[in-house]
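task queued by scheduler; priority normal; single chain, no ligands, no partner chains; default sampling; output format set to C-alpha coordinates
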Amino acid sequence: MEKYENITLEDAQILMSQSDANLADIRDLASFQTGHIDGAKHLSNDNLQDFIRDADLDKPLIVYCFHGHSSQSAAQFLLEQGFDEVYSLIGGYAAYENQQAK
Protein backbone atom coordinates (compact mmCIF):
# COMPACT_ATOMS: atom_id res chain seq x y z
CA MET A 1 0.00 0.00 0.00
CA GLU A 2 1.58 3.25 -1.13
CA LYS A 3 -1.21 5.54 0.05
CA TYR A 4 -3.68 5.20 2.87
CA GLU A 5 -7.27 4.40 1.94
CA ASN A 6 -10.47 5.94 3.21
CA ILE A 7 -12.82 3.44 4.82
CA THR A 8 -16.47 3.61 5.85
CA LEU A 9 -17.48 2.77 9.40
CA GLU A 10 -19.26 -0.36 8.19
CA ASP A 11 -16.21 -1.58 6.29
CA ALA A 12 -13.97 -0.70 9.25
CA GLN A 13 -16.11 -2.82 11.55
CA ILE A 14 -15.87 -5.74 9.13
CA LEU A 15 -12.10 -5.31 8.85
CA MET A 16 -11.73 -5.19 12.63
CA SER A 17 -13.74 -8.37 13.07
CA GLN A 18 -11.85 -10.24 10.35
CA SER A 19 -8.29 -9.11 10.94
CA ASP A 20 -7.96 -7.78 14.47
CA ALA A 21 -7.10 -4.35 13.06
CA ASN A 22 -5.74 -1.66 15.36
CA LEU A 23 -7.54 1.65 15.98
CA ALA A 24 -5.77 4.95 16.59
CA ASP A 25 -7.74 7.93 17.89
CA ILE A 26 -5.88 11.17 17.14
CA ARG A 27 -8.34 13.53 18.82
CA ASP A 28 -7.23 15.46 21.90
CA LEU A 29 -6.94 13.51 25.14
CA ALA A 30 -10.01 15.11 26.76
CA SER A 31 -12.18 14.06 23.81
CA PHE A 32 -10.73 10.55 23.89
CA GLN A 33 -11.43 10.27 27.61
CA THR A 34 -15.02 11.46 27.08
CA GLY A 35 -15.64 8.68 24.59
CA HIS A 36 -13.92 6.62 21.92
CA ILE A 37 -14.44 3.55 19.78
CA ASP A 38 -13.90 0.35 21.76
CA GLY A 39 -10.34 -0.87 21.47
CA ALA A 40 -8.93 2.43 20.22
CA LYS A 41 -5.62 3.71 21.48
CA HIS A 42 -5.09 7.41 21.93
CA LEU A 43 -2.34 8.67 19.67
CA SER A 44 -0.65 12.02 20.13
CA ASN A 45 2.73 13.59 19.52
CA ASP A 46 3.63 12.61 23.09
CA ASN A 47 3.23 8.87 22.54
CA LEU A 48 3.78 8.57 18.79
CA GLN A 49 7.20 6.91 18.95
CA ASP A 50 6.03 4.42 21.59
CA PHE A 51 2.91 3.66 19.54
CA ILE A 52 4.97 2.92 16.44
CA ARG A 53 7.55 0.89 18.37
CA ASP A 54 4.91 -1.25 20.11
CA ALA A 55 2.57 -1.72 17.15
CA ASP A 56 2.28 -4.77 14.95
CA LEU A 57 3.09 -3.10 11.63
CA ASP A 58 1.61 -6.05 9.71
CA LYS A 59 -1.90 -5.55 11.14
CA PRO A 60 -4.26 -3.10 9.46
CA LEU A 61 -4.44 0.27 11.21
CA ILE A 62 -7.54 2.47 11.18
CA VAL A 63 -6.99 6.10 12.15
CA TYR A 64 -9.78 8.45 13.14
CA CYS A 65 -10.30 12.01 14.32
CA PHE A 66 -13.46 14.08 14.91
CA HIS A 67 -14.81 14.22 11.35
CA GLY A 68 -12.34 12.30 9.20
CA HIS A 69 -10.19 15.14 7.88
CA SER A 70 -7.11 15.27 10.14
CA SER A 71 -6.91 11.49 10.17
CA GLN A 72 -6.07 11.47 6.46
CA SER A 73 -2.69 13.13 6.88
CA ALA A 74 -2.03 11.08 10.03
CA ALA A 75 -2.85 7.88 8.14
CA GLN A 76 -0.42 8.77 5.35
CA PHE A 77 2.27 9.63 7.90
CA LEU A 78 1.82 6.31 9.70
CA LEU A 79 1.95 4.43 6.43
CA GLU A 80 5.29 6.09 5.75
CA GLN A 81 6.50 4.96 9.19
CA GLY A 82 6.25 1.31 8.18
CA PHE A 83 2.65 0.21 8.65
CA ASP A 84 1.62 -2.08 5.80
CA GLU A 85 -2.07 -1.19 5.62
CA VAL A 86 -3.52 2.10 6.90
CA TYR A 87 -7.04 3.50 6.64
CA SER A 88 -8.68 6.81 7.53
CA LEU A 89 -12.21 6.49 8.90
CA ILE A 90 -14.67 8.47 6.78
CA GLY A 91 -16.71 10.72 9.04
CA GLY A 92 -14.43 10.05 12.01
CA TYR A 93 -15.76 9.69 15.53
CA ALA A 94 -18.89 11.62 14.52
CA ALA A 95 -19.86 8.74 12.18
CA TYR A 96 -19.42 6.31 15.06
CA GLU A 97 -21.52 8.46 17.40
CA ASN A 98 -24.26 8.75 14.78
CA GLN A 99 -24.36 4.97 14.40
CA GLN A 100 -24.55 4.49 18.17
CA ALA A 101 -27.45 6.95 18.43
CA LYS A 102 -29.59 4.86 16.02
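post-processing summary
- DSSP finds five helices and five strands in the chain.
- The mean pLDDT is 96.
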